[in-house]
Amino acid sequence: MRIAFLSAAVAAMFFMAPAFAQDLPEAVRKQGHLRVGIEATYPPMAYKDPATNERRGVNVDLVTAIGKELGIELRWEEMAFAQLIPAIATNRVDFSGSSMTDLPSRREKLSFVDYIATGAQIFTTVQQQKGAQQPADFCGRSIATPRTTNYFPQAQAWSEKNCVAAGKPPIRVIGTEGAAAARTDLQQGRADGAILGAEYVVYLSQQNPGTFVTIGEPISRNLSGMAFAKEQAPLRDAVAGALSRLISNGTYMEILKKHGLEKQALSAITIDAGE
């Protein structure tokens, strides 16, 4: 009787396996795992816990949930952000689990499953706020932002449209070598404010209570997505389907709330919808 009971239990476990594994391309099912590229230096999306050196963040939690939904093992491949696109193109990874802005120029080679809204967020320190409440309050002041990101030209374009066109002095946009340099310029008084991704500003505020002030809403809106090679459309669609189910069952919002990013949630998953 005990042997029969165990056999029934094993059979039940088999039939309880995620039904959506069949959504995966046959080649991936034969491979038996998904190779996921990840750049783990951008909190709160993906980063290393300084105490344990374990991967943390929104992307890590979402991709882990996708793996469970599809019933497949994940194998993470850590790399620099600049290596993600080449890794996808050369089939070193099956897709990028890092946040990557869905831009038309990138869609020449890639296809995106868009899962979160982001944008260029102005922020400053409590000491340097000086009454600023809205982005227009920074007309005539200086703002530091990484010159290699979209935030640099977006800040310049926003200034022309909302400051100069309104007869106000332009924002002086200071290009920096990266997010850390922009924050340093702000905190050391070389800039009146800074612009970084909305999600990173949330993280900075969480880590430094009472230090930073968010100024209004982001001055741009973009979609971030998980990137796939164009020929991986079946895998892309399987991941999109899994994410859609995670929205429906509440897991998606639970993960975003855990990291303080519920304001950046999407109501529906989209494909290649970035502008």
Structure description:
By secondary structure, the protein is an alpha/beta fold. 35% of the residues lie in helices and 27% in strands. It has nine helices and 14 strands. It has helices spanning 2-15, 26-31, 58-70, 81-89, 151-162, 179-187, 198-207, 233-248, 251-258; strands at 33-38, 41-42, 46-48, 55-56, 73-78, 95-101, 110-118, 120-125, 142-146, 172-176, 193-197, 212-214, 222-229, 265-271. It has a six-stranded mixed sheet, sandwiched between helices. Strands 10-9-11-8-12 form a five-stranded mixed sheet, sandwiched between helices. A three-stranded antiparallel sheet has the order 2-3-4. It is elongated, with a radius of gyration of 21 Å. It starts with a helix and ends with a strand. The model is unreliable at 1-17 (pLDDT under 50).
Relative helix content: 25-40%
Element-by-element helix/strand order = HHEEEEHEHEEEEHEHEHEEHHE
Give the integer mean of the pLDDT values: 90
Taken from the alpha-carbon principal axes, the silhouette is elongated
Radius of gyration: 21 Å
Determine the number of helices (DSSP H or I, runs of at least 4 residues): 9
Quote the beta fraction. 25-35%
Strand order of the largest sheet: 5-1-6-13-7-14
Major sheet, described briefly? 6 strands, mixed
Q: Which class of secondary structure composition applies to the elements?
A: alpha/beta
> What gap, in angstroms, lies between the N and C termini?
63 Å
Q: How many strands appear in the DSSP assignment? A: 14
- List low-confidence stretches: 1-17
